[in-house]
Design goal:
42% helix; 6-stranded mixed sheet; globular; single chain; 8 helices; alpha/beta; Nucleotidyltransferase, domain 5
């Protein structure tokens, strides 16, 4: 008997977008678990923020779900799927497959006792982790790096940007806030060949001020609020925290593509 659906379950249109991108079974015995249900379980966990062992019993066993999550984390498949869907979303709205401009920022969140890596961000007064994020002009994630919160934005930016050198041949300009000023601007130009454009808040501004380009990455952080698993640093490993961000973005992009398909059907 078919189980009752959860609000986080894949629709048929979403599954059609995601199914071809699921890694094929490795050599050995064929899979005896439905991969659509594994993804449903991961989406449930990301949306509700529950513990692995508290996944509902009508979903696949938590150990099976965690196996696929961690295995695809280690093989880089979460990042690959995120990249493939991002390209499809960009092309669907008339943009080039790869970006020529990006926005960079960081987000500090508290870490739970499960996290093996944490640090104290004196500026935000947060003891936990820091997500260093690079997004395109649609707010879609190009790269995320999770580090301890005590690492300064400029140092985290170097680690982030070194990881994407050579991946985005059209990239020319990156916008960032005032915390990235200083020697980093010249370092980005010399080492990466990009322009790091600092968008500063006006000294005369009072209260909220909408800054050019910077609001895009802030909106992406706002999207993260839809996923309780991202409200804190629940993951034991930084790599798992990065994979969870990609999972959240994959969920958002499959919904967007499925909606577009329905509208034009």
């Amino acid at each position: 008997m078919r189980r009752k659906p959860y609000p986080s379950d894949l629709s048929d249109e979403e599954w059609a977008k995601l199914k071809p991108r699921i890694p094929k079974a490795e050599r050995g015995a064929p899979r005896c678990v439905k991969m659509r249900e594994v993804i449903n379980a991961l989406r449930y966990l990301a949306r509700t923020g529950c513990q692995w062992r508290m996944l509902p019993h009508d979903l696949p066993p938590w150990a099976t779900v965690y196996y696929y999550f961690s295995h695809w984390r280690d093989t880089g498949d979460w990042e690959r799927i995120n990249q493939e869907l991002r390209i499809e979303v960009r092309v669907s709205v008339g943009k080039e497959a790869e970006p020529s401009a990006a926005i960079m920022d960081s987000q500090s969140v508290k870490a739970t006792e499960m996290s093996e890596a944490r640090g104290y961000d004196a500026g935000k007064k947060v003891n936990g982790i820091k997500r260093h994020l690079l997004v395109d002009t649609l707010g879609l994630v190009l790269k995320v790096v999770v580090l301890t919160a005590n690492i300064q934005d400029r140092d985290g930016a170097r680690i982030l940007l070194e990881k994407i050198k050579g991946q985005f041949p059209r990239l020319q300009r990156i916008w960032a806030d005032g915390s990235y000023t200083g020697a980093l601007v010249e370092w980005v130009k010399q080492m990466c060949g990009w322009i790091l454009d600092i968008v500063k808040r006006s000294d005369k501004a009072k209260g909220f001020e909408l800054l050019p380009h910077r609001w895009i990455v802030e909106r992406t952080f706002g999207w993260f609020n839809r996923f309780r698993r991202l409200s804190k640093g629940y993951e034991r490993l930084p790599a798992s925290g990065e994979a969870m961000v990609y999972l959240a973005m994959i969920t958002l992009m499959t919904k967007r593509l499925a909606k577009q398909q329905t509208c034009f059907a």
